[in-house]
Design goal:
binds 5'-deoxyadenosine; 13 helices; seven-stranded parallel sheet; alpha/beta; 32% helix; binds iron/sulfur cluster
């Protein structure tokens, strides 16, 4: 147990606040104080990331900072001097996984008392979770929040050299912090943040509390990053925001996302995609830009959440099923061959059989290429958590199974059209299951496993020889 402490604890009340104040852009916030230089020399770090792409991108920043401090990455917890879990709070099962992992690390800490165990990400922003960890998991040395990443050198110094148990979690709207180091995990595809936070406050969602106010990076900073990636051989960028379609509203830009997307396309980088879209903010200008540029991938992730109007209203989604269908039809017409995926929640409070049927009807209408489906999970501090969670678990599970069957059916149906066709694939690397098989994604974001002689980052043509629900098999066409 550490005797000294440095605590700055999260507060859900503060996390909820939104002001009208302009967002600061910080370009010199990150630095490595003299006493922290070389802190990681001769030390290994093990970093595990849970959850969404925003967290993956944050992990690349964390890795970049650690490497500037001299730490070396390792992929075995037993060899690590620092274990860092970058966590997700979106559903209870995501949290349970992390708490289980922290529990397992207790043994390792006992056998190596110098080991530093750190936790960051969305769980660190949760008041209840941080209190639980402080009470029940003394093996955790350092907790820092999503707004505190830039300060990692000092926090690590506190935990490692000053031997203080350190918690620094700010619950604030947040700023834009530029010029942070970055060690990217892939060398041909990159995540590019365009905005942070979320102001939508869907009633079930914890993200507006864990990631602060919706705030957009400047177009010129984003374009500079994309150009730099292109010059370094990157083939694909994915523009990231909790709600990309709201990009630029805080900068008083009209149709900000359409303008940004067009500028990114004009850089000429091979492939551009974006996520996540919100149906409420998806404007016609953006649809036109998607249709105009061939390097914008014909692939759109458009979360539906529910097909029932009353549930959508109580989720505070700001659209009804008809408005969603109209948008979907417009996109489908404007972008020929576009693939669509979605997110759906079952078992939201008061979801009746009829309401669930409405969701199934929307699936029949949209016939998605894939859908990510979830059982509703109450999140402490959100409005939905105050509603009575009155759908029995076995019913939620039954609905999920019915839904998943339908999702697989349409995924398979959509994939049939690729049989014997030639598709363009950007190679990620060898398949996880078999190292003689390459895998990558088509322009419409279909996973393809194939035989051939090429390497990660190559763009090749593949003839599809077999079709599954969630992937395609093929053979590369040698030029
Ligand atoms: N319970 C279940 N699913 C949720 N999601 C967000 N919050 C919750 C929750 N409390 C889902 C939504 C969102 C996706 C990222 O996670 O479908 O689009
Ligand atoms: Fe959560 Fe809704 Fe914001 Fe998406 S748009 S992050 S679901 S609050």
């Amino acid at each position: 147990m550490k005797n000294n402490t440095h605590y700055d604890l999260p507060s859900i009340g503060d996390a909820r606040k939104r002001s009208k104040e302009k967002i600061n852009i910080e370009r010199e916030l990150f630095n490595i104080p003299a006493e922290c230089r070389g802190l990681g020399n001769g030390r290994n770090y093990f970093l595990r990331t849970y959850g969404c792409q925003a967290n993956q991108r944050d992990s690349e920043t964390i890795a970049g900072i650690l490497e500037e401090l001299g730490y070396a990455a390792c992929d075995n917890e037993n060899e690590a001097d620092l274990i860092l879990l970058n966590t997700c709070a979106i559903r209870k099962n995501a949290e349970d996984k992390v708490l289980g992992e922290i529990g397992n690390l207790k043994k390792l800490k006992r056998s190596n008392p110098d080991l530093i165990i750190a936790m960051s990400g969305c769980m660190a922003q949760e008041e209840g979770i941080v209190n639980e960890i402080l009470k029940k998991y003394p093996q955790v040395d350092l907790i820092f929040g999503t707004h505190n990443i830039y300060n990692l050198p000092k926090l690590l110094f506190n935990a490692t050299v000053a031997k203080e148990k350190t918690v620094e979690v700010f619950s604030k709207e947040g700023e834009i912090i530029e010029a942070l180091p970055s060690s990217r995990f892939m060398h041909h595809k990159a995540w590019v943040n365009i905005s942070y936070g979320c102001d939508k406050f869907c009633t079930y969602c914890i993200v507006p509390y864990t990631r602060g106010k919706e705030r957009s990076r400047l177009i010129q900073d984003i374009i500079a990053e994309v150009k730099d990636l292109k010059e370094h051989g990157y083939k694909e960028v994915c523009l990231l925001g909790q709600n990309v379609n709201a990009y630029g509203r805080d900068l008083d830009l009209q149709n900000g996302f359409a303008k940004l997307l067009e500028e990114v396309a004009i850089t000429g980088i091979e492939r551009v995609r974006f996520m996540t879209s919100h149906p409420w903010n998806f404007d016609d200008e953006t649809i036109d830009v998607c249709a105009k540029y061939s390097n914008i991938m014909p692939y759109i992730h458009l979360p539906l959440q529910s097909g029932n109007d009353e549930i959508l209203r109580r989720m505070n989604r700001r659209y009804n099923s008809n408005e969603y269908r109209i948008l979907f039809d417009k996109l489908k017409k404007a972008i020929p061959g576009c693939a669509f995926t979605t997110d759906i929640i079952v078992g939201f409070p008061n979801e009746s059989d009829e309401a669930f049927e409405d969701t199934l009807k929307m699936l029949d209408y949209c016939q998605y290429d894939n859908a990510f489906t979830f059982i509703y999970s109450p999140r402490e501090g959100t409005p939905a958590a105050m509603m009575e969670d009155n759908v029995e678990m076995h019913i939620k599970e039954e609905r999920l199974a019915i839904l998943n069957e339908k999702v697989a059916h349409y995924a398979n149906l959509n994939n049939q059209k690729y049989l014997n066709q030639t598709v363009e694939v950007l190679i990620d690397g060898v398949s996880k299951k078999n190292d003689r098989i390459l895998s990558g994604y088509t322009r419409d974001n279909k996973l393809v496993n194939f035989t051939g002689n090429a390497k990660a980052g190559d763009i090749v043509n593949v003839r599809i020889t077999a079709v599954k629900s969630f992937s395609l098999d093929g053979e590369m066409i040698e030029e």
